[in-house]
């Protein structure tokens, strides 16, 4: 008889547990939860990526890379806050993409414009030597912007 009562009690408890699970799933979790809004990590002095697009014809791609290596690469390596640089080339649009990472926006923007212009002149001189172009910039800028982490 005790076995019959035990099995009945076991059945009732299983049924109650099943009802409780269905109730919780139907009406939400009874435990109070909180949602934290997405944090914006892009404060005024957070990490930033400088994004440039320049015109690079397929026939001059190697010349562009040589001019970058001879001018911007060594200069950037010496800059406070410089984290790294990635160069990409889009064959379809004949564009070079430059992603230059900086530890902070202020470190990037505190570089004197005159200094940047000197390095740009050096780049253009190397580029003209590499391409045989007599004047101007063989790889004109198409876009300049910045990307912030989110």
- What is the share of helical residues? 40-55%
Report the total helices.
5
- CATH topology label of the largest domain: Alpha-Beta Plaits
Adjacency order of strands in the biggest sheet:
2-3-1-4
User: Which architecture name of the largest domain does CATH use?
Assistant: 2-Layer Sandwich
Radius of gyration: 31 Å
Mean pLDDT: 83
Q: Per the principal axes of the C-alpha atoms, what is the gross shape?
A: globular
Report on the architecture of this protein:
The protein is 44% helix and 21% strand. The chain folds into two domains: 1-33; 48-147, 2-Layer Sandwich (Alpha-Beta Plaits), CATH 3.30.70.100. It has helices at residues 2-27, 61-70, 72-77, 105-109, 113-131; strands at residues 48-55, 82-90, 95-102, 141-147. A four-stranded antiparallel beta sheet has the order 2-3-1-4. The radius of gyration is 31 Å and the shape is globular. The longest helix is centred in the first third of the chain and has 26 residues, at 2-27. The termini are far apart. It is built from five helices and four strands; from the N terminus they run αβααββααβ.
């Amino acid at each position: 008889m005790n076995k019959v009562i035990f099995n009945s009690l076991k059945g009732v408890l299983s049924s109650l547990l099943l009802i409780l699970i269905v109730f919780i799933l139907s009406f939400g979790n009874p435990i109070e939860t909180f949602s934290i809004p997405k944090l914006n990590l892009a404060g005024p002095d957070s990490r930033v990526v400088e994004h440039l697009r320049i015109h690079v014809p397929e026939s001059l791609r190697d010349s562009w890379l040589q001019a970058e290596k001879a001018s911007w690469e060594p200069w950037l390596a010496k800059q406070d806050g410089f984290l790294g640089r990635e160069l990409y080339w889009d064959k379809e649009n004949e564009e070079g993409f430059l992603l230059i990472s900086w530890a902070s926006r202020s470190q990037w923007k505190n570089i004197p414009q005159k200094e940047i212009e000197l390095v740009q002149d050096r780049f253009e001189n190397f580029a003209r030597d590499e391409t045989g172009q007599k004047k101007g910039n063989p790889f004109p800028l198409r876009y300049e912007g910045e990307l912030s982490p989110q």
